């Protein structure tokens, strides 16, 4: 499997088709007809869990030594993936139900936290965790392990910056990051810092980065009893995506309101009193960014 990942990255089924064209059958000293998915899982069972960290460490040390990958900026993020592990399966406790990114909340999922390099997105750290844990909780569990991995790889904390999103924010988490000596870039929720956004709106200045002009505002401000450098900028790509999302939401709202209108004029349609109708319209008109756009009045 590892040889196939290096030579021809593909699925487990695709690996078998690739392996038939190589000498891997001779190297394994067994027939490929005996190498099925169960064989794959049996091999995984023979690999001790506590050996994973050491194996990663050795592979990464060799990788950084050979390819001289720049690691001065490190990205941290979490994701999850659903499984088909049965609800009654009590042997696996890592797969739990939670908010699934693929909207499969009906299935048990496994969480994955990773740190990758900005250059080429090379994974430098990973942590698997129970699928019902929140991002902030996982961050507290792994941040010290990330420091240990950096030290083991000989990465100087003073020349590296860890970047993570606002899902990991909390007063306690940022205090831990500071105590561990990290340089970091996080994110704040604009809704919770309206006074900063108001100042930024009035005092934006233009800077050029990589031939791209950005509107930026910078200040020193106290966040959670600690002074930090705050940088506010407008992302044209994010702005364009949000505008598309607003138009898509408006189209759905309009469709739902027209369907409600057809129900009301239909003699055989469901009868509603004013209170029920107002509640129905409020539900349809609700949505992020839409409260200041959609105006309605029931007459």
Automatic annotation (TrEMBL):
Transmembrane segment boundaries: none
InterPro entries in the record: IS1634_transpos
Name of this protein: Transposase IS4-like domain-containing protein
Provenance organism: marine sediment metagenome
Organism placement in taxonomy: unclassified sequences, metagenomes, ecological metagenomes
């Amino acid at each position: 499997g590892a040889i196939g990942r290096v030579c021809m990255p593909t699925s487990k089924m695709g690996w078998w088709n690739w392996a038939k064209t190589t000498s891997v059958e001779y190297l394994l000293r067994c027939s490929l007809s005996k190498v099925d998915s169960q064989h794959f899982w049996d091999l995984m069972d023979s690999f001790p869990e506590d050996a994973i960290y050491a194996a990663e460490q050795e592979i990464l040390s060799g990788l950084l030594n050979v390819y001289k990958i720049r690691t001065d900026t490190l990205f941290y993020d979490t994701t999850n993936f659903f499984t088909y592990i049965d609800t009654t399966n009590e042997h696996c406790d890592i797969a739990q139900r939670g908010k699934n990114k693929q909207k499969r909340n009906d299935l048990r999922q496994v969480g994955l936290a990773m740190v990758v390099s900005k250059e080429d997105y090379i994974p430098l750290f990973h942590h698997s965790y129970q699928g019902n844990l929140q991002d902030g909780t996982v961050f507290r569990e792994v941040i010290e392990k990330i420091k240990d991995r950096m030290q083991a790889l000989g990465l100087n904390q003073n020349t590296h910056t860890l970047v993570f999103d606002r899902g990991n924010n909390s007063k306690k988490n940022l205090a831990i990051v500071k105590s561990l000596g990290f340089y970091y870039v996080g994110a704040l929720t604009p809704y919770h810092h309206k006074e900063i956004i108001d100042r930024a709106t009035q005092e934006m200045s233009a800077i050029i980065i990589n031939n791209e002009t950005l509107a930026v505002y910078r200040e020193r401000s106290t966040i959670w009893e600690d002074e930090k450098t705050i940088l506010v900028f407008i992302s044209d790509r994010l702005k364009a995506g949000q505008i598309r999302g607003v138009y898509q939401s408006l189209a759905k709202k309009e469709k739902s309101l027209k369907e409600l209108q057809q129900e009301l004029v239909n003699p055989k349609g469901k009868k509603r009193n004013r209170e029920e109708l107002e509640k129905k319209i409020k539900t349809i008109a609700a949505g992020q960014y839409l409260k200041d756009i959609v105006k309605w009045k029931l007459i």
